[in-house]
DNA sequence: CTTATTAAAGAATATATATTCAGGAACAGG
DNA sequence: CCTGTTCCTGAATATATATTCTTTAATAAG
């Protein structure tokens, strides 16, 4: 019976503290007990579930999917964005916005940011950065050489340069092909002092921003400006490759898939990425689910920004998200 | 759109703080923002009602009735106890228990406690005090002389003495009649050095514990050991008197009701009670509702301990309490 | 193109809260 | 009737949190 009286007092203390917003010392004085006791009572109130705290996720946020992603793939953070339709265009736009906000909010001074230049999602991110909202970064480092068509290279250069301007950082471009014609050609390029200088920054990158690519010959070949032959791609898929970031290929379990191609890539290595403090991946869309899953299994990625549809596929919660869900195979 | 991204971040911060129990600085480090920002985000989360805190009153407690009592009568605190049946015996027992716990929990060292000796509810309180749980008080002061029958006087003395022992205090008895035969008889008693000594403590009382009495001739006369005549009581009721504490009579609005009787009472005055830091009243039961209402209106009482039925009557919430409610006139 | 004004953020700091510590009492087992 | 043990306090203190202050930059008005 006196337990009830004790709980009543605790409930009253909790009421004064949480609902009336009074200070503990004020409550203590009011009830002629010590502040320490009030603090202990409040702790007990939590334990006894006399106070219950609920987080109401704002509509359009997917706290649960984010939690599942974090737990399942050991991510440091996950951001799942609302997206009305499961179309790549819309998805990339939403992810880009979220990534831009994330960058604005959490960018620290003097960071060295590595960017794998030619992902469309990253482009969307850059387009959405509010100039001045992001604090000063030090360098924006291009972590992968350009691809084929000089026009595309220009885009990459512009993306890096623009991001550098937005963050007040110095751009460090990688004036080289992403994929050299041969191992020898790669060595030649590496001997270029400018290339070297940029690549020497790779181990100093504090924040890497990656796109994740799938390996469907069609898009891959197109994107790469026909640097790869169909045969080379088949080598990758034959070895189990399901996707890549910065042209580091991996299989479903996230294991590195090494092919002759690997030796020709000029860009940041998986090992170097593993050393980076924060690796952020931006990716979403039906076709990429498998690639993303593999990427997450590499353990390289700290933070994933994706859309709700992809998040649902990745967590096996296809049927639990609000709104229409397609039962696309994963 | 970026507002959503901001809210998402806030929700995540709230989640980490409230659900995962992480420190703000930890969260700040995790998200690469300053602790100050986390603090601000958490405040915003409250404002935006992303975090909702609820106090779940333990079953058997009546937070709502307590709030209403506090608000309606300007009480510092109110305690409403559970009580299965609306019977005076059960009610007094429950109130006594609650009062005992209250005293144990909130008694400070070196307090001077005034007790109006002959209320049965107070007796129940004393019976329920856990020896040693209450900290040391200084004096237990009897604030009203004994009533009629010497046997009853003995009870009063025992109550005071016992409470004194339980709290490690020194008992200060009022060796006098509660109601003198005449004004002259009162003056005689007041000249007694022991009586004087105790009464000199009245202004120094830091905590007064009162019972509240109604004025039905039957019980009142019985209780008083026929000190009052029916006529005297009629004087009181004719003047609008509805109740008393420490034989200070008042009407429905809490105004003092002064009759010739008043000059014969030997006990603490209403004015002296008004000066006391904490005045606790213990009272409940159908028959006393009106008296309690008047008592609360005097403004003398800081804290009321009562039962749920009485509380409901006092707040006009007869129909809103859980369980059976009698529609007794108030 | 200036010059207020506002907003937002982190560093420094003030304030509030949690925890450690020491003391006292109850209890159990010698 | 003693211990040793546990539990419970409040005082002192360590720690965490809120706020102030200052800087920076954006926006609006002149």
List keywords for this structure.
three-stranded antiparallel beta sheet, disordered C terminus, elongated, seven-stranded parallel beta sheet, 46% helix, DNA-binding, alpha/beta, 330 residues, 11 strands
Describe the structure in brief.
The first copy, chain A, has 330 residues and is an alpha/beta fold. Chain A is built from 14 helices and 11 strands.
3D architecture notes:
The structure is a homodimer of 330-residue chains. Chain A is an alpha/beta fold. The first copy, chain A, has two domains: 2-47, Homeodomain-like (Arc Repressor Mutant, subunit A, Orthogonal Bundle); 63-329, Rossmann fold (3-Layer(aba) Sandwich). In chain A, 46% of the residues lie in helices and 15% in strands. Chain A contains 14 helices and eleven strands. Chain A has helices at 2-19, 24-31, 35-47, 63-73, 88-106, 120-128, 150-167, 183-190, 193-200, 217-223, 230-238, 270-275, 289-297, 308-315, and strands spanning 51-55, 77-81, 111-115, 137-142, 170-172, 207-211, 213-214, 241-245, 248-251, 278-282, 303-307. The first copy, chain A, is elongated. The termini of chain A are far apart. β1 (51-55) of chain A pairs antiparallel with β1 of chain B. Chain A binds a DNA duplex (30 and 30 nucleotides) through residues 23-25, 33-40, 42-43, 132-133, 135.
């Amino acid at each position: 019976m006196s337990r009830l009286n004790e709980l009543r007092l605790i409930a009253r203390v909790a009421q004064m503290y949480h609902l009336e917003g009074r200070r503990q010392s004020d409550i203590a004085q009011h009830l002629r007990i010590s502040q320490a006791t009030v603090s202990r009572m409040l702790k007990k109130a939590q334990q006894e579930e006399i106070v219950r705290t609920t987080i109401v996720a704002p509509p359009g946020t997917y706290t649960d999917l984010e939690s599942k992603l974090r737990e399942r793939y050991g991510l440091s953070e996950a951001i799942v964005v609302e997206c009305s339709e499961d179309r790549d265009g819309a998805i990339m736009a939403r992810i880009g916005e979220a990534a831009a906000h994330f960058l604005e909010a959490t960018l620290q001074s003097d960071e060295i940011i590595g960017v794998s230049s030619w992902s469309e999602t990253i482009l969307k991110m850059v387009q959405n950065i509010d100039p001045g909202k992001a604090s000063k970064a030090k360098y924006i480092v291009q972590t992968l050489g350009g691809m084929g068509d000089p026009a595309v290279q220009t885009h990459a250069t512009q993306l890096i340069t623009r991001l550098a301007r937005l963050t007040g950082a110095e751009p460090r471009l990688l004036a080289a092909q992403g994929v050299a014609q041969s191992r020898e050609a790669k060595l030649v390029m590496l001997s270029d002092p400018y290339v070297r200088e940029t690549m020497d920054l790779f181990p100093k990158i504090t924040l890497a921003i990656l796109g994740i690519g799938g390996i469907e010959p069609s898009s891959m070949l197109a994107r790469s400006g026909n640097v790869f032959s169909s045969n080379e791609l088949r080598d990758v898929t034959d070895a189990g490759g399901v996707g890549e970031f910065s042209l580091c290929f991996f299989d479903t379990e996230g294991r590195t898939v090494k092919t002759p191609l690997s030796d020709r890539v000029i860009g940041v290595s998986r090992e170097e990425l593993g050393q980076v403090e924060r690796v952020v991946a931006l990716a979403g869309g039906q076709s990429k689910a498998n690639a993303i899953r593999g990427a997450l299994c590499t353990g390289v990625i700290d933070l994933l920004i994706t859309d709700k549809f992809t998040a649902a596929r990745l967590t096996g919660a296809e049927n639990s998200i609000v709104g229409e869900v397609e039962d696309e195979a994963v």
